[in-house]
Amino acid sequence: MPVTNFSHPDPYKYQTGFDSYHETEAIEGALPIGQNSPQKAPYGLYAEKLSGTAFTAPRHENKQTWVYRIIPAAAHENFIAEDADSYHTRMTTEAHKLHHIPNQLRWNPFDLDEKVDWVHGLHLIAGSGDPTQKQGLGILMYAAGKDMGKEAFYSADGDFLIVPQHGVLDIQTELGRIILRPNEICVIPRGVRYRVTLPDGPVRGYICELYQGHYQLPELGPIGSNCLANARDFQAPVAAFDDEEESEYKLYSKFNNTLFSARQNHTPFDIVAWHGNYYPFKYDLGRFSVIGSISFDHPDPSIFTVLTAPSDHVGTAVADFVIFPPRWLVAEGTFRPPWYHRNTMSEFMGLISGDYDAKVGGGFKPAGASLHNVMSAHGPDSGAFEGASNAELKPQKVGDGSMAFMFESAHMVGVSEWGLKTCQKVQPEYNEHSWKPLKRHFVNPNKKA
């Protein structure tokens, strides 16, 4: 199995299974038996419920976790806007502050930033919708070089799907610890508090924040019960807690894309035990089981979907997370790269490592990105087209050492001021370099010489 092989072992323990009901305790007997909220919880703990959906959501959609902690999460001072103007400027999804344009866009690799921590290294590139209405999504880059101190962060706006491109994230969440490296992903649900430290130095990567619903595995339909991302390969943390008395912490809240902070005199990481189905999880992209055509033509790129967030319209997603891992191409008589197309969905692509097989000109690089918005025409660049049109169609392994991905959405995505101008990474001649060199090959049989 082509599982990512890292040079040092993961120091933390995990439970396996996606969307499973888990229970875990750091001290034996800390989980109450038969009751969620007994009159007195074991060891003098407080019972607290973390709800990711409405209480009355259908059972198959209901997300909740009961936690047993030393001090309730409510015990903090009032939140105060934290440098609200500058943070709001680089995080806003207000419609009048986003640029909705039909042009194809591509970004050079985004910079590392060793001067800031996780909280202050988040930058919105593009987005759609409104977190106050729980509609839409935001696409962010993160770049940080400092550990968070005695601090914690949570987003009230949505679930964070984190895709590392460079460096290692050591994520201490309320529900346990996660180590996250490139070629792995992590989802931290709305409201879960966490702290990020950097054991191997500066980090950089991508985030798709989901304002609407939660990520889930896609339905497999005629594929059957296996392949793509298998539920058993997802990992959730086990309970781990800090026991600190009278320790000063700062709690950050991302609330309608504005940063607030509050002080509290105890650690946020004091959950001794928990049970439920609302928790952070991670997944190794090397475990994705790729499928494809073994005759002619190739299926839609939806066959590479790892996670999806459905909209209210069946078969249409607020966000799909799609990857393009190493794979074999064997289709006969077929143009093998992605075809030229215009899509009702918006496609934001990033590159973790290597080269993407549909872009051979060198402009799409690791830590860069591209955006092809609703109905913006795109496809292979001229070099990829000429090569694929004239190649000998033998079985071919593509993507060795490469991992590209796509955040795809039914929403028309607006580009932030930071993404379009401030970061100064937009390639001004992307369209001209990619598609203007395409040659005319048409031979009209009805045209007289």
TrEMBL record:
GO CC annotations on file: cytoplasm
Positions of the catalytic residues: H298
Stretches assigned to the Homogentisate 1,2-dioxygenase C-terminal domain: 287-442
Natural source organism: Penicillium rubens (strain ATCC 28089 / DSM 1075 / NRRL 1951 / Wisconsin 54-1255) (Penicillium chrysogenum)
Positions bound to Fe cation: H341, E347, H378
Keywords for this protein: Dioxygenase, Iron, Metal-binding, Oxidoreductase, Phenylalanine catabolism, Tyrosine catabolism
Entry's EC annotation: 1.13.11.5
Enzyme class: oxidoreductase
Domain of life assignment: Eukaryota
Binding site for homogentisate: Y356, H378
Family stated for the protein in its record: Belongs to the homogentisate dioxygenase family.
Cofactor(s) needed for function: Fe cation
Gene Ontology MF: a single term: homogentisate 1,2-dioxygenase activity
Protein name stated in the entry: homogentisate 1,2-dioxygenase
Homogentisate 1,2-dioxygenase N-terminal domain: residues covered: 13-285
SUPFAM superfamilies documented for this protein: RmlC-like cupins
PANTHER family in the record: HOMOGENTISATE 1,2-DIOXYGENASE
Pathway the protein takes part in: Amino-acid degradation; L-phenylalanine degradation; acetoacetate and fumarate from L-phenylalanine: step 4/6
Alphabetical list of InterPro entries matching this protein: HgmA_C (IPR046451), HgmA_N (IPR046452), Homogentis_dOase (IPR005708), RmlC-like_jellyroll (IPR014710), RmlC_Cupin_sf (IPR011051)
